[in-house]
Every structure is written in C-alpha cells, then in structure tokens.
Write a structure and sequence with these properties.
The protein has 2 domains: 217 residues, Glucose Oxidase, domain 1, CATH 3.50.30.50; 34 residues, no CATH class. The strands form 3 sheets. It has a 7-stranded mixed β-barrel. A two-stranded antiparallel ribbon has the order 2-3. Strands 6-8 form a two-stranded parallel sheet. It is built from 6 helices and 12 strands. It is an alpha/beta fold and 281 residues long. 39% of the residues are buried.
Length: 281
C-alpha cells in the first residue's frame, strides 16, 4: 500500500526543522545541540584551535531531548511502571518507546481546523481549550470519526516556529514568562471522546497537546488508555479535512518515553491546497 501511495501521490513533509536557532526544545529540558565532530580537513575554530578532523568525511553529533522537534509521546512519558505504586501507574508504563505500535502511528488523517482559537485574544499563560464542541462541529460537517483515523489538530501555532526573538512566542512567552496567551490545547474529555471513537493517535502543530497551565491531565488520561500524541507538526494547511494518509516513524530508542521522528502525509490526488498561513518573524 505504501508503495502505491509513494508512486501515485505527492508527499507532504509535516516535520519541523531542528536547529539551535529555532525553539525546538522544551524550556527547562536539555537544549538541542548540533556540532561538528569531523570535517573533510583540519579546520580552525573561532577560539584559535582546530577541530578533530581526519578526513575524508564529515560527521556531526547531536544532543537531543526525546521530546524535541516533531515527536511522539508514548505511554511512559506520563505513566509510571505498574509496580511503582505511583499515581497513574499502569501497564502502559512497563514498556519503553521501542514497543510503540507503529501501526497506530499511521492511518487516514482527519484534520480539524481550530485556528480561530489561537486568533482569539486570551489570558497570558493560559491555553484556549479544544473541547468537545470543536470535535462535534467537525463531525457535523464531515461525518463521525472512524476507527483507526489519525486526528490532526490544525491550530496554526507553527507560524510562531521561527528564528530570533519572534520565536519566543512559540513556547517561551506563554510558558516561561506568562507574557502571552498559550497555544490551543486538547481538553481531557475531548481526548476520551476520540478514544471512544477508536482513534488511537492525535497530532497537533503546537509545542504540546496539553495546556500551558495544566498539561498533565490530558496526557495521563489518554496515554494511560494506550493513545499516542504527536506534537510539533507543521504544514497541516496542505492537507484536506479528509482523504490524506498520515505516517509518523519515531526513532527506535530503548526505554524511551517516545521520541523524535519524521511525519509525512500523502494527500489525495487533485487536492487543492489551502492558502498558506501567514508566518510571523
């Protein structure tokens, strides 16, 4: 099936670019680092020394948080091991990200346009809620959610994923300084509604599925039921409400809580693109 998709349809990249100049890391977590380790020849560094180079190849090293850039949240991100005795402990916390079922990270995409929530002026440090009303409104226009669909929440928040001072609006201003309203976030009861419709994976083009002020409940209630979240997507404006096929493949990291990866989609042939969003910065 994937071979047919690749030959018959164009591919849309839904992944953000990782860079030390972009707000790709969660504040307070280890910052993203990408440095040269070996270059084609000995190179002089700004400090006056030289880098460790032997040629004839180039390679770099990474320091990266598991939830940096476009990534998925596995159950162990918020669910402790069943033997721990901690709140929310359960079977989902017993297996790391290498056991994530890839079949649930692929499927027909249902794209929900909730950009109006981000456009409305809100309280600094608080996220507008993507609640049941938004899901029911979408269903009234496009029909009920289907077993195995991947629901993608198009907030437009990726417009803030830019270099420089403007990039602080993406996560730092709402979360760290509480100087700006937060990104739209999925309500816990809305996540459970999707679970009842047999939706296993939900994605969003914002830093987190959870709200700025209280991110835990939606993660705890959804991940404890075997759902997966994919965060920091982009380019959702290139997909129709229905008809695309979505794929996310995380790095296979032992004992991880999820992990970064590449998200792509195959829109239907002849799909007319939505207007590209305005980007700040």
């Amino acid at each position: 099936m994937l071979a047919d998709l690749a030959t018959a349809q164009r591919l849309v990249d839904l992944s953000v670019t990782l860079s030390e100049h972009l707000p790709c890391s969660w504040p307070g977590h280890v910052p993203y680092v990408h440095k040269n380790w070996n270059w084609f020849e000995e190179a002089t560094l700004p400090t006056g020394g030289s880098c460790c180079s032997t040629g004839p190849y180039q390679t770099n090293f990474l320091v990266i948080d598991e939830h940096c850039g476009t990534h998925c949240d596995g159950p162990t991100h918020f669910i402790p091991p069943s033997s721990s005795g901690l709140p929310w402990a359960g079977a989902g916390g017993d297996r790391g990200g290498e056991w994530i079922d890839l079949a649930h990270l692929t499927g027909p995409a249902a794209v929900i346009d909730v950009r109006h929530l981000a456009a409305e002026a809100g309280e600094p440090g608080v996220s507008p809620e993507i609640g049941l009303a938004e899901l029911e409104r979408w269903e009234s226009e496009h029909g009920p959610f289907r077993d195995g669909e991947v629901v993608l929440l198009w907030t437009g928040w990726d417009a803030h994923y830019v270099r420089g001072e403007a990039g602080r609006r993406f996560v730092s201003d709402p979360l760290v300084t509480s100087s700006a309203p937060g990104w739209p976030a999925l309500a816990a009861d809305a996540a459970l509604y999707l679970h009842e419709r047999r939706v296993r994976t939900v994605g969003i083009d914002a830093p987190s599925m959870g709200s700025v002020e209280n991110p835990a409940p939606v993660h705890q209630k959804a991940l404890s039921r075997g759902m997966y979240f994919i965060e920091m997507l982009t380019n959702l404006h290139l997909l129709p409400s229905r008809g695309s096929y979505f794929i996310f493949l995380p790095l296979k990291i032992a004992d991880s809580t999820g992990g970064p990866g590449r998200a792509v989609a195959f829109p239907p042939q002849g799909n007319s693109q939505r207007p590209a969003p305005r980007r700040s910065g």
